[in-house]
Amino acid sequence: MRRFLAASFCVLSASALLVVAGTPTLDGDITDGTYGASVADQNTRTGFGDNENELNQMFVDSDATNVYIGITGNIADNNAFHLWIDTNPNEVPGGVLATDDGSCPQLVRPVIQAMLSGTQFDDFFEPEYGLSVSVGKFPGQSDTLLVFAADLLDLDTNVNTILGVGAVDTGNGLLTGDSGVQIAIDNSNTAGVVGFDPNNPAPDPNEINSATTGIEIAIPKALLGISTPQDISLAAFITNNAQDTGGPGAVCPDPNDPNLLIPQEAGPCGRFGFASNQSLPGLAGFDNIATFTPGGCFRVDFTAATGNQWVLVTLP
Question: What is the mean predicted confidence (pLDDT) over 255-281?
Fold first, then answer.
């Protein structure tokens, strides 16, 4: 069951982690020697499928042109990976996503971003950009090959950049668009965190350190409007890709009474969303956050978990 914790708006003193300056090869092999130490480690075993949907460690790098983010783990069919980027860190209080414009189809936003409307971030984190990578066997793309569609939404202007479509396990980060963004997904990981156990939710270091492949991203600094050296904050999360329409009779627990089931309100275009327990930084022992829709039974609220679900880094 979800817990809701009161937010505390105290002044935060956080030291940014300095990342190394380098140029990784975008192939989904994260720990190939280019990156420095991880900037965030998982503290919760996965409730979305061992070796299917897990985030183990985050690595950050940069060169004169790009910011590179590598995350070891997996992302399975019918799920989505989200990376939120705060290019102006330490704002108070934490931001709340307002990404549902009430239309169907959404006028500018991907539906998965609209589904996350109402998400509450921790204090001092108010992202300017949301990168979503929706994975599946999409009609018109491939009925057999696992592919992904990626978008970069400017959360201040609500202008969306369609980054294009790529395929999983290609060994490169090439997308169909010409945005300059590269995304490589290597789903071969069979190590990392294991399945969630409520009696033993925390992984040991050998689990998280054992994963070496996953999601690798290069984003041009010009696309984020940043220069270096500069501090940025990052947060990663896994949900489903909101293709489920739920159907009649969908219910979820009443937030005020977990023994009471109430009708689940559908989100944009009649979609239903399901949130995992895989974020980086981690959720400190939470199981899956459960069903979410804007204004529905649940919304994603990172203040409910212990610690900050964002990491501050300094790009050289």
Answer: 84
